[in-house]
Amino acid sequence: MWLIPAIIFSACLVLFISWVYEKGSQKQEKDNGINKKYRIAWLLFIAYIIVTFQTVFFSREAGSRKEISLVLFETWGHSFHMHAMFIENIIMFIPFGVLLPIVFKQVRSGWKCVLIGFLCSCGIEITQHITQRGYLQLDDVVTNTVGMFIGWAIWKIVCKCLRTCLSEKC
Question: H or E stretch including 103?
């Protein structure tokens, strides 16, 4: 029930930020296509951060989860639901791995991007534990970091394909 309002809120916020930016840039000369694509990436990044925060922090009651699990692959479990939650943690960080190197050129190397994903995941887990809004789980850090790497790899492959296509004038 919380995901749809988070997406609607994110969409409204992104539209508002976009509208404010457009009003400000109308006074300046027209942007070229590259700046517009960069702005779109930034707006998607902001929307992603909002939805992720809503998902990991505000989808549960404070004080509802207190456990710590430092056993690797413990959350894989024996049921379809547990497998789905495990895979969901990978999928959740793929957009982060794609968008981060687009909006921050300084983190385009794989190790920097994955390190930031790892640190953000650690930050999420620690904050969830402190606020008791989620279990602190080693599996979440590992799966989120894997998702970050997959996202970065997708970004890298797409960049290489675009570079090849543009150099060959596809």
Answer: helix 80-103
